[in-house]
Amino acid sequence: MRIALGSDHGGFYLKEEIKKYLKDYGHTYIDFGTESTESVDYPEFGYKVAEAVARGACDRGIVICRTGIGVAITANKIPGIRAAQCHDLFTTRMAREHLNANVLALGADVVEKELAKEMVKIFLITKFSGGRHARRLEKLKEIEEKYLKGK
């Protein structure tokens, strides 16, 4: 599985920890930045990750800022992206099983690093349940297509 990673300055250290974790478990990743704790704007990195997932260059994405809110909002602006801001193992599992989330949004000031690693594991191994959830995702897709065609 190929993972797109991105964070702003507030999520930099957690992103670096997740990179180590992914490498240890044999996942490949593309790091879309940032490269330090110097102040940057989160939309740039949320966009890069979401765009890579939407066009199929990466299978899933992980975006990180201090709260996870800004990067989740940014990623969800890209058609085809279902970014889920998660805080624990339950919300992470539900994001995959029920929503087929393809981007995980984490808050570096909200989720402790060991928990974040477990959340990444759950995000990568959990399968989409389908069934009634597929019907709901189809409705989301219809809304997105309707908006894109003419608002």
Provide structural commentary.
It is a single chain. This protein is α/β, with parallel strands linked by helices. The protein has a single domain, classed as 3-Layer(aba) Sandwich (Ribose 5-phosphate Isomerase B, Chain: A), CATH 3.40.1400. The chain has 6 helices and 5 strands, in the order E-H-E-H-E-H-E-H-E-H-H. Helix 1 packs across helix 5, helix 2 packs across helix 3 and helix 4 runs parallel beside helix 5. The termini are far apart.
Named CATH topology: Ribose 5-phosphate Isomerase B, Chain: A
Uncertain segments are none
Strand content: 15-25%
CATH architecture: 3-Layer(aba) Sandwich
> What is the global morphology?
globular
Layout of helices and strands, plus pairs?
Blueprint: E1 2-7, H1 12-24, E2 28-31, H2 42-54, E3 60-65, H3 69-75, E4 83-85, H4 89-99, E5 103-107, H5 113-125, H6 132-150
Helix pairs in contact: 1-5, 2-3, 4-5
Tags for this entry?
Ribose 5-phosphate Isomerase B, Chain: A, alpha/beta, 50% helix, 5-stranded parallel beta sheet, 16% strand, globular, 151 residues
